[in-house]
Amino acid sequence: MIFFGLFTAGYQISASIGVFAAGMLSAIAWQYLFLIPSVTILFLPLLLRNLPDKQGNGEKVDWLGFTLVGFAVAFLTLYFSYNAIWMLVVAAVLFVAFAVYINKAEHPFVTPAFFRNTRWIGAIALILVFYFVNYFASPVFNAIGANVYGMSTSQVSMHIVFAFLVAAAFGICSGAIVGKIGVQPSLAIAGTLMAVGFIGAGLAVNAGFVVLTLFACVFYAGCGLMYSPVVSTVLGTLPQDESGRGVGMNDLVMNVTGSIGIAVFGGLLGGQAFSGSSIIGATGAAASYSNLLIIAGCVPLVGVIYYLIVRKHIYAK
Q1: Measured distance between the N- and C-terminal CA atoms of the chain, rounded to whole angstroms
Q2: pLDDT in tens, 248-295
Q3: Which of 306, 128, 280 has its CA nearest to residue 206?
Q4: Dist. CA 308–CA 304, nearest whole Å
Q5: For residues 287 and 269, what is the distance between their CA atoms, to the nearest angstrom?
């Protein structure tokens, strides 16, 4: 739990630096931004000195299995971005080919038995739901700042950076929080915070950007608290020798569902589908953002309800 908390805290602090620097980075040619990760080269000597130098057992990497599932996920994500039906067809064909392959191959990187674990299926569905709207927060608050309050990217960044810092703080403390109240209450509270943050922001879209920033902090507090208990829950459904595959599938599902979510909700940001009216009486762009935030907030709310229904099965020994 402590490690998971520090892991997500590092992620959120990195994100906060990126958001805080967005105003300055927007003045730089985007091609140069690809050079930023090159700073990690400086850490290579340190890694070489400290990482364990253990040799593998000589087994071959399942390149065919990785290739099939990799392209299948890629085409599925592209479909939600470009809405081209042929991409969905290709993704479906590749997933079917992958299912046939793991049933026939001698040493696939993941076996059919892995997917017959109903406790794991029930737990991984939590990630599918809770992380679906995770990437939507930053663009929607930026859009509100620009189109409702006439703020620049730098001004929005100065507000939203506090939300990422709150996420980092909750990530650092998540191990202690989970140790104090337990995995199950922590997961339910995290999902509730995410729902309250989005729904509250949707209801307060015209109340001022400081109020919206406070609700953004609530949402990201849930994000920071969520990682430790949800990953621990998923890995707890697997035997120890499957933990490596479990971590890999966690990261895969987490990134795929977030990518699909931002493709779906992000595609609605510039539209007028929800701009007619809202329950708070807003119209135009404010109504659209209000409705989108409330809909997005219902996603983690559904996740909490689902979790309360299936948790006995997930934690069954």
Answers
A1: 20
A2: 888 889 888 988 898 888 888 876 667 777 888 888 888 999 999 999
A3: 280
A4: 6
A5: 11
**pLDDT at res. 26:** 67
Closest listed residue to residue 245, CA positions, set 147, 107, 139: 107
Q: Which two tokens stand for residue 280?
A: 């708070």
How far apart are alpha carbons 275 and 291 in whole angstroms? 8
183-195: pLDDT as tens digits: 999 999 999 999 9
Q: How far apart are CA 7 and CA 187, in angstroms?
A: 17
Place of tokens 């590092």: 10
CA separation for the pair 125, 143 (Å, rounded): 30
Does residue 203 register a pLDDT over 80? yes
Question: What's the whole-model pTM score?
Answer: 0.84
Give residue-wise pLDDT tens across range 208-253: 999 999 999 999 999 989 988 998 899 999 988 788 888 888 888 9
Report the C-alpha gap between 243 and 275 in whole angstroms.
Answer: 46
The type of residue at 264 is V
Q: CA nearest 253: which of 128, 132, 129?
A: 128
Burial 158-187 (b: 16+ CB within 10 A, else e): bbbbbbbbbbbbbbbbbbebbeeeebbebb
For residue 110, give every residue at least 6 positions away whose Cβ sits within 8 Å of its Cβ, in sequence order, or none: 65, 102, 245, 249
- Cβ neighbours around 54 below 10 Å, total: 5
Contact, 108 vs 101, CB < 8 A?
yes
According to DSSP, residue 7 is labeled H
Q: Could you give the angle at the alpha carbon of 134 between the alpha carbons of 131 and 139, nearest 5°?
A: 155
Quickly count: other Cβ atoms within 10 Å of residue 235's Cβ: 17
Contact between residue 107 and residue 74 where contact means Cβ atoms under 8 Å apart: no
Cα 137 from Cα 158, distance rounded (Å): 15
Reported residue count of the chain is 317
